Amino acid sequence: MVHIGVIGCGVISKIYFQNLTTVMKNVQVIACADLVEEKAKTAAETYGIPKVCSVDELLSDPDVDLVLNLTIPKAHYSICKAALLAGKSVHVEKPLSVTREEGAELVALAKEKGLFLGGAPDTFLGAGNQTCRKLIDDGWIGQPVAAAVNMIGHGHERWHPDPAFYYQVGGGPVFDMGPYYLTGLVNLLGPVKAVTAEAKTTFAQRTITSEPKFGTLIDVEIPTHVNGILRFDSGATASLTMSFDVWSATQPRFEVYGTEGSLQVPDPNIFGGEVLVRRHDQKEWTVVPYTHGYSDNSRGLGVADMARCIADGRPQGSNRCSGELAYHVLDVMHALHDAAAQGRRVTLESTVARPRPMSTMLLAGTVD
Asked: In CA terms, which of 42, 113, 164, 345 is 20 to 30 Å from 358?
């Protein structure tokens, strides 16, 4: 049993706590910490976690094997680095860090220490994306030629209780939602080779209309509408739109086009969703049953996968949601912003192997 300490007990932590304490069979959450102690106390009472402590106490606890870092993006680097230096493997919410330099340092430090580093999202390990992966690998649509992905909405200020960080450095549609789509693309098509892009900030300020900060103005520091073209090592291309500036749209969320047919991929922000395929000799789209498990909200699956690697003594970096994968996605996100700001094609310096596919025959709560 791998023991987990959770740092950050905010909104996203609830589903992690729920799954790691009731679904995943190879982990045990033994401690939690938050800058607001009441949040940690509430989480401990709700999910039966035995220890509430400070961040420093959690990092120095010899019983903690793996740190789950659910802090805000600006704190990802410092907490991950502190965990690695304390001899703990660490899985962090997306993005891996705010800057490329910080992300590269974390990957190198984990390698030096022989520890596991991983990053969200783990949604691509779910039934929907893994079924699509198997369809592509089995040749149902032939050789992938292109893809189209669109994350189009109007931001988080209408529902999130404290949305300001979504409009600061490390936020925006590319850094907030991009990891889901880009990780999904890498899982299906492999690493990105180069990007071009255009970007803009439509609204200089946003007004919070959710509670408890209704009426508060947010200064927007980052691009909120980005259009990109991605070129993959495989030769496939993808068009990408990431926006917090659009009230409504009817664009396809995620499609992959091959030499023998087309594939509709579910929303990469969820684990399930409908999978549809239409081959060149078919007149209609066909719904494909799941070939894999984990169709419900299974956040924490990547943590359990890392824990399996730790328990089995597998090589550093063998976890599917690896630090190398999270860094490549971070590199792509920065490349999109750089390409737009500089008006040029940006070639990626990083690369990564496609993560191992999940097994098709897993019992609920287990990983292979």
From this structure: 113
Q: Among all chains, which residue has been given the structure tokens 């990983």?
A: 367
Residue 361 pLDDT: 87
pLDDT of residue 252: 87
Residue 229 and residue 199 share a domain: yes
Range 15-37 average pLDDT: 97
Shared-domain flag, residues 57 and 95: yes
Closest CA to 298 of 177, 102, 129: 129
In angstroms, the first-to-last Cα distance of the chain is 15
**Residue 350 covered by a domain:** no
Q: What are phi and psi of 4, to 5 degrees?
A: -115, 140
pLDDT in tens, 119-167: 999 999 999 999 999 999 999 999 999 999 999 999 999 999 989 989 9
Q: What is the mean pLDDT of the chain?
A: 97
Residue listed under structure tokens 């287990």: 366
CB 164 within 8 A of CB 156: no
Query: What domain count does the chain have?
Result: 2
Whether residue 248 sits in one domain with residue 137? yes
Distance from C-alpha of 333 to C-alpha of 100, rounded to nearest angstrom: 10
User: Contact, 132 vs 256, CB < 8 A?
Assistant: yes
Please tell me the distance from the alpha carbon of residue 37 to that of residue 12, in angstroms, as a whole number. Answer: 17
Q: How far apart are CA 342 and CA 125, in angstroms?
A: 35
Alpha helices in the chain (DSSP H): 13-22, 37-47, 55-60, 73-85, 100-113, 127-137, 172-176, 178-189, 301-312, 323-342
Question: Do the Cβ atoms of 196 and 228 come closer than 8 Å?
Answer: yes
Phi first, then psi: what are they for 258, rounded to 5°? -125, 175
The maximal CA–CA distance of the chain, rounded, in angstroms, is 62
CA 139 to each of CA 133, 259, 261: distance values in angstroms, whole numbers, following the listed order: 10, 10, 10
Residue 32 · residue 4 · CB < 8 Å = no
Strand, helix or coil for residue 241: strand
